[in-house]
Amino acid sequence: MKQLKDRGFFNGLILGMALSFITALVALYLLTVLEVISVSVIDVPRIQVLFDWSRRNLGLSIVPFGIALGLYIHSLHALQQRLDDNPPQDEISQLEHLNDVWTSLFFGIGVIWTAIGMRSALLYALGDPDAATQAGASAVLQRLVEGGILTALTTTIVGGIGGYMMRIIKSSLLGTRLSRFYEEQEQDHASRVESLLCDIRDSVDAAGTRGRRAYVLQEGP
Hints:
221 residues; elongated
């Protein structure tokens, strides 16, 4: 019992530290994207390149993407744990449905952010038709990029690839176990139905036997 409490406390401590670290990273990213503060990691070129690419191509969409991914990982972990405990079928079905919801949400964020980015880019580039006409095609394309067209296209790719990868991960990790669980539940249900039918048959046979005995006694000498 004490070991379980210590383990639960340790897991809770690790989870709290991880959530605090992730929250700090998200807050730092948001403040940087919104140009409230400026962060530079020139001493680590790869991180600087990744940060600049994320800010230019994903923008604020990385926040809802990250939230959906975190909820997906949490529900997948919960589903994996509950499969070890042999819970009721409706609980497993609910957890699996919730996991599918986060996958669909990941897809949806990509689609929604694409529409938002396209609208923003078009308004930024063509908001003033006279100025756009005078500027020329190259200037309009530049304004489309500055207006967020890259974010719109990148979020479509990230949402699509990420959503399909989430489905593949779920199928690879839990597909066999889920199929076996549902098959065992169906077999258990069939066994209960068969047992119930046997009980009904035995009851009917017993009632028929008693009826025949009563008839024989009535027809006796």
